[in-house]
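Z., the sequence and structure:
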Amino acid sequence: MYSSTSGVVLPAFLPMVPGLIEKLGGGDPVALASSIIVVGHLTDSSPISTLGALCIASAPATEDRRRLFNRVMAWGLSMAVVGAVICYVFFGLLNRSLRDQKPTWVCCVGSAIRAIRSR
């Protein structure tokens, strides 16, 4: 676990989940809390976070720190987008599919596992 996420992001945002769900008019609090946790950890390597700042500070003297800063910042921002997509798929689409009792992908995976075990 990274200190920025566990020390700042999670204590600040997780207590807001029930209020956000209420203001949004409903939703899955576990999915929202899980999304905060996932994206918080994925973006923890940005240069404005502890881990990213440590990476830049410990770079060798031959490294162009401005270029490294830009690359690490691009990584952190891209992880925000990647994390949002991952959370939407797992906590949105697949969760909805399971709730609606139409887990076709689960049946396919289960059939594949049974086929492998029968060999």
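The chain has one domain: 3-117. Residues 3-117 form one domain.

Let me know what you think.
H.
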